[in-house]
Amino acid sequence: MTALDVAEAVAAEMSDRGALGVALMGSYARGEESAYSDLDVVAIGTGDASMRVRDYEEATNAYRKATELDTKNGEAFKSLGIAYHAGRKYPNAKQALVKARQLNPQ
Fold first, then answer.
1. 2 contacts 31 by C-beta, under 8 angstroms
2. pTM of the model
3. Cβ neighbours of 66 (radius 10 Å)
4. Cβ contact 75:56 at 8 Å
5. Alpha-carbon distance 62 to 40, whole Å?
6. I need a surface site. Which of 30, 77, 82, 98 has the fewest CB within 10 A?
7. Mind listing the pLDDT tens digit of every residue in the chain (106 residues)?
8. Residues 63, 73: contact at Cβ < 8 Å?
9. Which helix (H) or strand (E) holds 35?
10. Do residues 42 and 66 touch, judged by C-beta distance below 8 A?
């Protein structure tokens, strides 16, 4: 699967292809070509890009997709909780953050 295949697969799940483009460009700029081998990493990048432009709904969609793709990724659950909190969805934020703490009890 090529980077373009991965990007298209994630973009199909997301409503805003612009945020995905920002995430992909940021990863390339940081030299993270291997990031495209995992769909959850691309979804997290999309969420990060959406948070930067304060599109909390898109961010929660992206982070939720990342948690579905990798159910043991505590950082994805933490990011999901932060996005929910930013979007004022406090019960959802608490649930995601509790899950993040269970996965990464540090």
1. no
2. 0.66
3. 27
4. no
5. 9
6. 30
7. 454 555 555 555 554 445 555 555 455 444 444 444 467 778 888 899 889 999 999 999 999 999 988 899 999 999 999 999 999 999 999 999 999 999 998 7
8. no
9. none
10. no
